[in-house]
Structures are given as structure tokens and as C-alpha cells.
Amino acid sequence: MISEEISASGPEGILAGTLTLPDQHVELDDNTPVAIIVPGSGPTDRDGNSPLGISANTYRLLCEALAEKGVPTVRFDKRGMFGSMSAAADANDVTIESYGDDLLAWIDTIRSRLPRKDGLLRRVVPIGHSEGGLVVLAAANRIERPYKMVLIACPGRPLSDVLKEQLHANVDDAGILAQANAALCSLQNGKNVATSGLDPELAPLFSSAVQPFLIDLFKYDPAALMRKNKLPTLVLQGSRDLQVTVKDAAVLVGGSETALLTLMPNINHVMKHVAEDTREANISTYSNGSLPIAPIVIEAISAFLASS
User: What domains can be seen in the chain, in order of their start residue?
Assistant: First the structure.
């Protein structure tokens, strides 16, 4: 296995990422697809970590485990963040469509870096994690010669509904919940929220800097996009995911003729095995970068990519 730096064209500068190959000495077969990890929400780096308290190394471990199965991968820093800082002056000035633009740029880069000997386009499989799944769904019809896609912990409902459910599960204060509901309703209707009167607990979630992105984000219905999708799609959902539920996965694939749903017992949002059904045990994996990705994730993805 070998990893090397790779870059794609961003809106204002380069998008930075890592290419992981199973073997530096073996030329890829023309039929070998390359997987690209499309990251989840917030300031998430190419390894799947965040300064907001996540150091699970989810994407790095996923790519390394897939390489052991013979699957080359690319993972990248989002525009305006980390190694892709120069790609955008403001990391918050973004939309789901512009994240899709970056995905298309990466696909072009992969096909240029790893061309097929027969002159056809290399097959690239986006693997969207959480919000990244929505990016993949929204951009799928813009990919030239698309092949397959994988969605991991992808919401099946508009993100405003998911966020509301998360808040109600984790906040006991009725006053804070009322403020949150009002803010979400306003953003769903395309209207900004005054931050001056918000409870401090809600201020980071609804900061004025991210509100334009939230307004755009809340317009998308993942299940509606999935119903229009014609690509073979693997949907992976953990039973102990605290952020996206099995119910989301069922809604996501409900109207699809091309989706394959794999439910993963005892797996959480960062693709780690959780032995105990407690929040403490679950959250502890978010900061455990040495805990491997659950084998069921790797087996399901590698088998799906190898299938005809």
C-alpha cells in the first residue's frame, strides 16, 4: 500500500487530498474502480477528523482497509479548509451544488492520474458519508459515465428534520427547543435568523456565517433524489448511529429500484463497533483513532465494488 498527495482544481486554488493505492508496483487493471470519500458536515478533514472533538480517523482507516482489499481511494480536504485552504476564501460560502462541483473536479483528476489503457474513462465510485451522501446524490446526474455509488449514514429526510430530531433527543430545556424549532422553521423558509436573542447553546449551530449554507442545505430531500437515481447504490446504516437512524435508511431506499440496503448491527456514525448500547460507549469511539473500521463496512463495500 502507498499513499501520495494529489490535488484537483478548486474555485480559487487547489483542492488537496490523498491517493491511496493497493500496491505502488502494480498497474491498475482497466476494470478496477477508484473510490472517492465525500466527507460529512462541518470542518471535517480528509482523515475524517474535526477540531470540534472528532479524532476517529474514520476516512483514513477506511481508505487503508479498502487498499488491503485491492481498492484504490482518494480522500480530500473540503474547500477553504485544511490543505484546501486556498481553494476558497470563505469555507462557509458554499452550497451543496458547489460541493458537487468539487466532486466532479476530483473525478476528472482521478481519471487523469489513473487512466485506462483502453482509452475509456476510469470508473469512479463516490462514497458519501452523512451529509456527503447528499452531495453525492445531488451531483450524480452530472457525473460523466457514472458507475456506482455508496452512501454511508446518509439521511433519508431533509436535514432540517434530522437536526430537529437530534436536538429533541439531546436537549431537555423546552425554551431552547422552542428557539431551535423557530430557527429551523425560518431557515426552511429561506429566511435568516437573528442570532442576538439565541440561547448560547444554539449560537454555534445557527451562527450568521453558516445560515446561508443551512438555507441551501434544507432545500434538498435525499429520498426524492434517490427515487430519481438510476445507479446501483449501496446504502450502509449502523444500528447504533446516534445521528442518522435506521428509519432514515429505510426512507432513503424505499422508493428506489437500484438501492441495496445493508444494516450493520452495533455500528455507529463513525463506522466503529460499539459493544454497549450507551451514549458514553458510543461517543468514546469518536476520539479513538486506533480503533479500526468495523469489518462489515469494508466487506460490504469491497463486495459491492467487485460485483457486476
Answer: 2-158+220-306 (3.40.50.1820), 160-215 (no CATH)
